[in-house]
Amino acid sequence: MGEMAGVRGAFLYGVAAIYLSAFASLYTQIPGLYGKEGILPVRRMLPFTGKALLDQLTESPTLLWLCPWLGLDTEQGMELICLLGVGLSIIALVAKPLRDCFIFACLWFLYLSLYQVGQVFLYFQWDSLLLETGFLAILVAPLHLQKWRAAPPRHHDGITFWLVRWLFFRLMFASGVVKLTSRCPTWWGLTALTYHYETQCIPTAASWFAHQLPSWFHKLSVAIVFVLEIAVPLLFFAPTRRLRLFAFYTQVLLQVLIIITGNYNFFNLLSIVLAFSLLDDQHLHYCSRRSKKQNPASWLRTLQALIISLAELAVFVTLVYGTIHYFGLSINWEKRIIESKIVFTFHEFTQWLKMVTPLTIWIGVLSLSWEILGSLLSSLMVRGFISKLWATTQWVVFAAAAAAMFAVSLVPYTFIEYEASSNLRPEIRRMYDLVDRYQLVNSYGLFRRMTGVGGRPEVVVEGSYDGQRWTEIEFMYKPGNISVAPPLVAPHQPRLDWQMWFAALGDHRHSPWFTSFIHRLLQGKKNVIRLVQVDETKYVFSNKPPTYVRAQLYKYWYTIHRTDSTLNNWWIREHVGEFFPSVTLGDPNLESLLREYGFKDKVPPKRAVKDVLPSILKLTREQVDPYSGEQVIWGLYFAVLFISIFKVMTNGKAKGSQPKPGWKRSEGKDASGGGEMDADGRRKEFRRPEGKVRVPAEEQSPENVRRRK
Prior knowledge:
By secondary structure, the chain is mainly alpha-helical. The protein has 27 helices and 6 strands. It folds into 4 domains: 1-152 and 605-652, no CATH class; 190-341, no CATH class; 345-448, no CATH class; 456-600, no CATH class. It has a 4-stranded antiparallel β-sheet with strand order 4-3-5-6. A two-stranded antiparallel sheet has the order 1-2. Helix 17 runs antiparallel to helix 18.
């Protein structure tokens, strides 16, 4: 690949923006999820053991072990970490000289500290993906010691940026493969998207319209998804730019369509940021119309370009032919539809996967070796002994780090194929076990099986004062009221609403946190209620907590739009049965479940807030509480935008006010650029002093001298 300083900057900017949304989103939910009176109090995760601080950090690497030293409880420590993460993310976004490896190392360890104690509400694939991407950002970011000077050139950028491309390949390829290895009948029948739009965790309003598309279009879309997730990722390592650019734009298109039809928080945005690894500065300059004028090519270069174009054309033809052949695409002229079906068997696919998985590993080895050799040659061509020694030393360090990261990543990558996984050397597995707790590499595979084929299961929580008349408790984001349109909340992730979707897939005993949630609703804990409704006036039991609470299981389906109907309801639903029995405070069944899950421990008494740091945290919380997570995130994004615009305007004025080289403005000079003014307001004649006059620097260039001659 070519120069990538600009692409590297775009990647780091995107990672900082993702960190900002992740920290801000979690901050708004900490009291209700992890507070003393929250659903899963975080104090249970860090009990006092009497061990030394270093031993505690080794067992569970989190900064929350330092809370007693700062006079904070664990909940306040999580809030402080989130605020520090928000602050550092904003600094990385608005101050380019500070966007270096140190600030990304801090962001990574801050998020890792939260992940270690986040329990079920923080164990999502995109949280692991953010940690792995964040660690790679440490390697990609420059070591900028002298902030006031421009960062020196880095000859190993190709090595570190290759790791980002490898991560993006693992993410997309595994996500496509697991859909077929799961033997899910909806994926094999190409009918998954006929259920996906209405059964995803938190759909958007646009997903209702996508659901209305004809079934033949859904089946064709599934076939295209398989091509984009299994075949196209192989082009990430193509030696020609056009193939990589084709892969980039197809992957971005896929992620944008998912963003429009589903609320997957920052996951799809992070996937787009990872796709930047397929670009180079030449393409960025072309897009910004700053590409250099190229000289006429020789016949040899023309022949080379022709051969490359023919090879690329052959790849595109193979891709189209394979799609038509393996998915049985044909046009039914009578019905005016495109028919599609998978024409290969599960056994044929597993045999293909058994052959391709080792092949992709060797492709990765060759591609990484090429980047390492290219970086070595670039380092050896540096002028000056000291500069060459420094560049070569950096090459050794980053080449070794990249090789180690690639080797360790093979363990989770080969989870998709048993034989390839069993052939890995024991040394690689031991390396993986050593770094597993730090989430440096992870396995991925999204939408493995399509749930809700017979209807979307949804838990509806109800409350009552007398046990006879029940009122539904509506959530802000998840489906409930059939007449309320699905919201658009990304990049915010309402983690309680997400877990409610997972809870509906099984028995309530599979989700112990749900019992604690019911208990907090009976107690009327405001921090938990804010997870349900930020605006307490919309919470039906805002004046007095319900005496009884229960949960019912429903099946939801999107309404079907007809030309002769009006859109009154978005959903239709059918009652399935009881999900959680009716309980009240002191109920023996509820008390038994709370003791079984460990939620009956005594709540420590609240300490009086006297120190400065707890007071600041309390004041900040009071200012943020009235706003929802998406409002906080977009408010921060707009603040960053305004700061950036202000910087551009002030820098532009500063450049415009600088005098030209070789000229000095004397006092009393007219603003219009003429001579000085006398006491009567008349313009004085300005004469240049006799003698040798220094020619401005820009006029001394060879081109200007030749032009004058």
